[in-house]
């Protein structure tokens, strides 16, 4: 093996590459340093004690990296250097044209400084398994600052770590230098095994996907998400006179139902009016550009999992076939959200009016309204989770409208707590950026306002990024729920195939 085929990694200062051991205690199968090389002992013979009183050990060993045979004779009472030899397993995720391999580390990063082993049988096994799309796990041996692939531990169709399995597909897609021969339809979803009961893991997975398909997601954010954010944050489309009129009407309703017009009640009515008017005025924007951005994000996540590069022409062809059902589902989502708010208003007015008729004080009505609001916030959060999942389903499955909502509500069973944490994190992130924009750009809480020139665009970009991550997490959450759904069905003996009619893309 030539020097060029050895690959070194730096060690921490002061870290020892060897440790001493008495020659008489080194046995066959152990390790020893001979002529500065780490070796595995294949034969040991000890001579009888001579006239000087020292028995000698004759070692025959094989260099663990070059397979070269080396020999040494050492007095049995003397110490020999024994190398520290470590083995670490990695998931193979790519093989480049120049023979270098890309391996997935436990931390989710990549190790790209090793070449294929010089052993032809090992190299052939790795190449064949990789080309067939199997999970290939290799064992890397390191010693004395040198490392090399020494074994292929496992070649199987998804028998290794599920998380590693799908992440390898992501990194493979990003690192491939040659164009991928794209099939005429999206591949099956059988290799998407990601499942997590931790919202933080779903966030990490979303960031990994963003990293490995950065171009597609950044293009979506720049072209579709940022323009919407630039309109929503300053409330350009909101008619403030209409907001004031609706706020007055809500205050009158609150007063007639027995609620005291405290600052908290006034602020709540004003925010509710702003939300209602903003949603109504921006609805054309939501149902076109915003919905298109969500569709593009879901499509990109799916393409990443399917080991395919996102191509605009392919997306446009697919969009023609799925856009109607996505819009139809979104209309049902709007109906559900409006229904939830309507039910909340009716329930709140009814309860407060009942308390007022029964003679309770106005302050008691406020506490009752707060409790009703807290209960509604939980119900509303669950409704948003169902709605977001339904939009993802309408993109990836041949289901739309009320059917997509029903499918989503059934799919997220057992995973609601994860969805709630995702919704909470996204809501807090968006609210934080909105608060900064309100105080730093709209009101200019301090300074002469010159910072608006750069703070406004910066906050728009921040808002767009949070929106992008939220859409990506919804898509990843969907895949996680699918795996959980399949596992639950299998555990009770109901392993029914999940309907996954993919979007057919016809070559033109």
Automatic annotation (TrEMBL):
Keywords, A to Z?
Answer: Hypusine, Membrane, Protein biosynthesis, Transmembrane, Transmembrane helix
Task: Supply the InterPro entries for this chain.
Answer: IF5A-like, IF5A-like_N, IF5A_C, NA-bd_OB-fold, Rib_uL2_dom2, Trans_elong_IF5A_hypusine_site, Translation_prot_SH3-like_sf
The UniProt record lists the keyword Protein biosynthesis:
yes
Q: Tell me which residues make up the Translation initiation factor 5A C-terminal domain.
A: 84-153
Q: Which Pfam families match?
A: eIF-5a, IF5A-like_N
Composition skew (Basic and acidic residues), residue ranges: 1-10
Membrane spanning stretches? 214-237, 330-358, 370-396, 416-437, 458-479
Q: Does the keyword Cell membrane apply?
A: no
Q: Which Gene3D superfamilies match?
A: 2.30.30.30, Nucleic acid-binding proteins (2.40.50.140)
Extract the SMART domains matched here.
eIF-5a
Which superkingdom does the taxonomy of this entry point to? Eukaryota
What ranges does the record give for the region Disordered, renumbered to this chain?
1-23
Family, similarity comment? Belongs to the eIF-5A family.
Q: Which NCBIfam families match?
A: eIF_5A (TIGR00037)
Q: What is this protein called?
A: Translation initiation factor 5A C-terminal domain-containing protein
Q: Which organism is it from?
A: Brassica rapa subsp. trilocularis
Q: Which gene encodes it?
A: A09p051700.1_BraROA
